């Protein structure tokens, strides 16, 4: 079965609020079996437009990735992120 991934591209506008969001989201990622592969760090734009922060989380399946994102536990973290960042999130199936 292919892995599932949550890919987020983020421009943080409030560091403190975003840090609170990250603290809330981390245990939920673990609860759904997610493994953070990329979280921040150096990023070089090779083509197109980018955001300042990139996150890639691997799950055992696309279904689990989507269950994590739509879970009530993560909804609370998403609410904490409101106003703290401009972000694009996608769920993608691995090869």
Automatic annotation (TrEMBL):
<dbReference type="InterPro" id="IPR011008">
    <property type="entry name" value="Dimeric_a/b-barrel"/>
</dbReference>
<dbReference type="Pfam" id="PF07045">
    <property type="entry name" value="DUF1330"/>
</dbReference>
<feature type="domain" description="DUF1330">
    <location>
        <begin position="3"/>
        <end position="94"/>
    </location>
</feature>
<dbReference type="InterPro" id="IPR010753">
    <property type="entry name" value="DUF1330"/>
</dbReference>
<protein>
    <submittedName>
        <fullName>DUF1330 domain-containing protein</fullName>
    </submittedName>
</protein>
């Amino acid at each position: 079965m292919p892995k599932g991934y949550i890919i987020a591209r983020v421009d943080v506008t409030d560091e403190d609020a975003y840090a609170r969001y990250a603290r809330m989201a981390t245990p939920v990622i673990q609860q759904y079996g997610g493994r953070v592969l990329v979280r921040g760090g150096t990023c070089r734009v090779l083509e197109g437009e980018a955001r300042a922060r990139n996150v890639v989380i691997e799950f055992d399946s696309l279904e689990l990735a989507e269950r994590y994102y739509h879970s009530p536990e993560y909804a609370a973290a998403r609410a904490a992120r409101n106003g703290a960042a401009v972000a694009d999130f996608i769920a993608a199936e691995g090869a």
